[in-house]
Amino acid sequence: MWKALSLALLRVAAAGEWNFTVYSAPIKLRYGEVYNNQQGPLKLPEHIVSRYAEDKEMAITGFDVEMVRQAADGSEELVKLNDHYLHHYILSMGRIETMNKVLQHAAEDKMFARMLRGCHGMTRAPIHSFLTQLGDNEDLVTFGSAAGAEYRHNPQRYSAPFRRVIKSPQVWVPTFHVINTNKPLENSSVPYSPLLECPCTPQRKIDVAAGTIDGRDPDPPIRCSPSFAATGNPSCSLSTYVGGWRCCENGVFLIDTDKQCKDPECSEEPEDEVFMKYTFYYEDATPETRHMEPSACCDVTGTTQGFENIEYDVPVCAAGTPPGKCLHIVETVQPVGYYYRHPKSPNDHHKATDLVDIVFAAPHLHVAGLSLELIDEVTNKTLCHVYASKDNAHGIMYGNGTEAGNENGYMTGLLPCVWGGEEAPRFQRNHPLRTRAVYDSSRGHTGVMSLWLMDVSPVSEPDFMI
Ligand SMILES: *[C@@H]1O[C@H](CO)[C@@H](O)[C@H](O)[C@H]1NC(C)=O
Ligand SMILES: *[C@@H]1O[C@H](CO)[C@@H](O)[C@H](O)[C@H]1NC(C)=O
Ligand SMILES: *[C@@H]1O[C@H](CO)[C@@H](O)[C@H](O)[C@H]1NC(C)=O
Ligand SMILES: *[C@@H]1O[C@H](CO)[C@@H](O)[C@H](O)[C@H]1NC(C)=O
Asked: Would you indicate the residue range of the signal peptide (predicted)?
């Protein structure tokens, strides 16, 4: 069993034959400030657009992510996590016309817009549903993932014949959530910036009766499964919410600006500028290429298809608990695939009994995460398991140095499980999968996540579009 698992973990499929690199628009932040913005549409290179303008489809085989600072002479420097912290990103790529239809719809429909920018954007369900209605289902692909601090050691490589297939790619629309963490820690009991846990500062106006933060609905909405809410996790209710994504909106500061700044915008602080850099690996799709689509699993705060609260808090363990015994464990069971008439995907015509192969499972955890396990709920077989270890060899990596990718005390890597055509586990869409997440609770944490950012591939697509 372990052998098969480590094979899946370690197999990094060869990159496709070709690659291209694109940069984001600048991300400008002062210390303590949050960027949570959708950019673009940004143009893809002309040779990509023209290659796939007619009948060929682009098959993305993987991509690399980097955060860089550009010097006046054009040279690049890698940005460390204790300089700027990437909380997460979401990518869309496709035909400009389709992208504009989606953005137009988002401008008219607040809920749809929130779903795109929020974590539901990553599940693609709202876009899928909208495009199915339009009949443009393959002209826009949303992918990327929550992959945050661990983006440097989180190889996005898919095993043949599974590919992210895009028809007529012309533009990309990235959403980035970044925090400027660029000040030395003072008197801190932890080696990482406390800002990455998005503390709700005294400046946040939380109105429990109105259900708002700073006059707006929390985004994403606060909503845990009944079973997880019953554990009393502070993150499941606005009245007990003290930190996390909902206090981490665009332009917000994660420091007490009354005490630490001259004005609410900290305008005396210098504004810094960084860029995200993506290198995509691709080939032409062939008749053998099989499409990837988002899985309906797994977020430990939910029990239905897709993500629910997405984040939660890890309360500190009881005083006197021996250090190695301070563990916070959450489990849940969710179906592997999206299927018919799920509210998040009302136009989905997949049947519960349709078959899918699991092809890619990227764990997503925050600092203090110790283990994430994906288990077949029917057979109890472990499908993917990552855990932290001193040698960083079991899928969860922590830094112990100073260089980019090895920042001391930060979670610096999470290795996905990847399956190729022969070995991909095959299930009905409604097959239950269990996720078990373990965090070190020797201190408290806000806004942690325990997700599998997973892709499945339909075994056949009989009534994919109606
Ligand atoms: C990207 O493609 C160029 C040729 O266009 C090649 O020289 C380079 O090695 C490739 N990079 C990677 C990382 O594969
Ligand atoms: C850090 O500790 C020193 C010594 O106890 C104290 O003088 C200083 O004000 C502290 N700094 C902060 C930001 O709390
Ligand atoms: C799976 O584990 C559960 C809980 O330990 C147990 O009740 C069940 O019988 C197991 N199922 C199989 C097929 O081993
Ligand atoms: C840092 O971690 C690596 C494993 O990733 C280990 O080989 C190395 O000895 C560690 N260095 C220190 C100074 O602890």
From this structure: 1-15
Lookup result for tokens 């959450």: 330
Closest ligand 4 atom to Cα of 393: 5
Ligand 2 nearest-atom number relative to CA 187 = 1
Q: Residue 413 and residue 408: Cα distance in Å, rounded?
A: 12
> Ligand 4: which residue has its CA nearest to atom 10?
400
CA dihedral 435, 417, 400, 412 (to 10 degrees): -80
- Output the six-digit token pair for 94: 């496709």
Cα–Cα dist 386/437, whole Å:
10
Strand partners for 404: none
Q: Name the residue at shortest CA distance from atom 4 of ligand 3.
A: 380
Candidates 187, 195, 259: which one to mutate for ligand 2, based on the most atoms within 8 Å of Cβ?
187
Strand partners, 373: 385, 436
Cβ atoms of 374 and 113 closer than 8 Å: no
Which 3 state secondary structure label does DSSP give 385?
Answer: strand
Q: Where are the domains of the chain?
A: 2-464
Q: Residues 160-190: pLDDT tens digits?
A: 999 999 999 999 999 999 999 999 888 889 9
Distance CA 193, CA 82 (A): 7
pLDDT in tens, 117-144: 655 554 556 666 666 666 555 667 777 6
Decide: residue 97, CB within 10 A, 0-12 exposed, 13-18 middle, 19+ buried: middle
Q: What pLDDT score was predicted for residue 146?
A: 67
Which tokens hold the place of 233?
């996790």
